[in-house]
Structures are given as structure tokens and as C-alpha cells.
Known about the structure:
The structure is a single chain. By secondary structure, the protein is mainly α. It is 70% helix and 0% strand. The protein is built from 5 helices and no strands. It is elongated. Residues 1-30 have low confidence and may be disordered.
Amino acid sequence: MSDPAVPEEHAFQAEAEGQAGARGDAGVGAPTSAERRMPTSQPILLKALRWGVLASVLLVILFGVIGWLVSGRTGLIGGVMGAGFAGVFLALTIGSITFANRFIGSDMYVVAFFGIVMGSWVVKFVAFIVAAVLLRDQPWLNPTVLFLGVISGVVVSLIIDVVVVAKSRIPVISDPR
């Protein structure tokens, strides 16, 4: 029985070396190269994360300035918080996917992947609801600038995702089975 995430040559090599499968389940030696192998989408996700962090920093600065010009200190706080929230939510999504990809060598990869990604989405949803309730009527921030910062961050992150994926070159036959 072979693992679909492990190339056949690695499975044969591991069996020849007396290991229980390509992942070294018997605890023999260091992790194999098959265990550390990442999906072909990993570099694309990391590129989107780098661009997302850069865009988030620029949006925090931009909305801080816009907020300051619109309504002084309350606008500055609202703009910085709005763009910052969008950046954190973007990083949580991509970060959870790239972290979940570390389990590709596991028999439970699909379960772990969706558990981690859906767990991060639930955390983001709860955090957004809690933040919206707590910040609803605060006199020290401008809620309009906060809202525009969040929406702009979401739109920019979607544009980054589209551009990075459209310009990426993913093989038609990606991960060997």
C-alpha cells in the first residue's frame, strides 16, 4: 500500500532501508525528504503573504494619514486599526494554509489541513464580531475611517491574490503520487 503524497521511488527506498513507510513511522532516523516536501502551491502562498504584508503596512500608513486629515486623532486611530485588522486577517488566512501544508506527509493531511484552515476562519470571524461589538460606539475612533480601512484592505488583498495566482506558473501535473 503506498501513500499518494509520497513518490514511488521514496516509498521503495524507505522500505529497502527497513523503515515502516516513507515517513519513518517506526521512529528510525531523521525525517525523510518526502516528509518535508511541500505542495507546489507553497511558493505562491508565500509570495502572496509577502505582498500582503507590504500592502498592509502601506495601507496602515495611508489610512493613518487620511484619517488624520479627515478627523484628527480619532481618524488616525480608526484608519490604522482598520487597515491593521485587514492585514492581520490576511496573514492569518495565508499563514494557516502554509502552516497546514507542513503536514502533507501525514496520513491525516486533509483532515489536518481543513481543521487548521477552518479553525483560523472561525477565530477570524469571532475576533471580527468581538471587535465590532467592542468598538461600536467608542468616542476615541472614527468608525467610518475604520470601516473604509477594513474594506480597502480586503479589496487590496483580493487584488494581490488574483495577480499572484494569475502570474504564477504551476505545473499542470503538480504533486507526484
